[in-house]
Structures are given as C-alpha cells and as structure tokens.
Design brief:
about 30% strand; four-stranded antiparallel β-sheet; alpha+beta; binds nickel (II) ion; about 40% helix; 4 helices; elongated; 2 domains; Alpha-Beta Plaits
C-alpha cells in the first residue's frame, strides 16, 4: 500500500455543510473516502479523454426485439467488435422489451465507437455508456 499524505483544505462552511449532507445520504461514513472517490472519478474521466488509454465500460441497451432486423443488427455490431466485448447479459423484460448489458474493455476511442454504434442503432429505445476503470491506475 502506498504512503498516506494528509492535506488541509480550506472550504466555505456552507459548502462543507452541503457536502456533508450529500455524502451522508450516499452512505459515506467519513469525508476522506468521499474526497478520494471524487478524485478517482475525475481521474477516470480524464483517462477516457485520451483515445489510446486503456479503459473499461458498460453499455446498457433497451429495445423491442420485434423491431424488424434489430436483434440481428445489434448482434452483428457486437461480432464486428468482439475483441472489445468481454461479456453480455440479456434480460427479457416483458413480452416486447429486452435489456442488454455489455462489458467492454479496450482503447477509449474503440470502446466509445462500439457504444455509439449500438446506442445509435434505429429502434434502440434507450442506451447509455457508463465509463469506469480497470482499477489498476487507481489506489
Ligand atoms: Ni429479449
């Protein structure tokens, strides 16, 4: 484990009060972990800005499988980018709607390309890319 550094932060009392209430709602038991998570979140965002950085992400899709050729199109895109897709989960939500979650890993530009191709496919009702990290760069 790396060495811990202690820092002092000057912050407006009203702002700190709002922050404390927010982190309490989210279940943090101390400020330090909440600050560390904010910093990690910024570092993950920054990593995704570099097209060549190695990233991990998930794509969530909701679509109606009755839309003509939609399932085939989505499967085709996934096969085109199979090297970036680690795993997929398919849930039949009801008679019509499907939920798919894909776990992707690779260069940020490639992962975004796969996510954009899937989400922008006509007939997909909702899609979202969630960016995260392999964790290797984060303490
Ligand atoms: Ni389904």
């Amino acid at each position: 484990m790396s060495e811990l550094s202690r820092i002092g932060v000057a912050i407006d009392a009203g702002l700190l009060d709002k922050f404390d209430r927010l982190i309490a709602q989210r279940g943090y038991t101390n400020r330090s972990e909440a600050f560390r998570d904010l910093i990690r979140d910024e570092l993950v965002e920054k990593a995704w800005e570099s097209p060549d950085s190695h990233v991990v992400g998930t794509v969530t899709l909701v679509y109606d499988h009755h839309v003509r050729l939609l399932s085939e199109k989505l499967t085709g895109i996934q096969h085109d980018f199979h090297h970036s897709i680690l795993s997929t989960l398919h849930v039949h939500l009801d008679h019509d709607n499907c939920l798919e979650v894909l776990v992707l890993r690779g260069r940020a530009s490639e992962v975004r390309k796969v996510a954009d191709a899937l989400i922008s496919t006509k007939g997909v009702k909702h899609g979202r890319l969630t960016i995260t990290s392999s964790g290797a760069e984060l303490k």
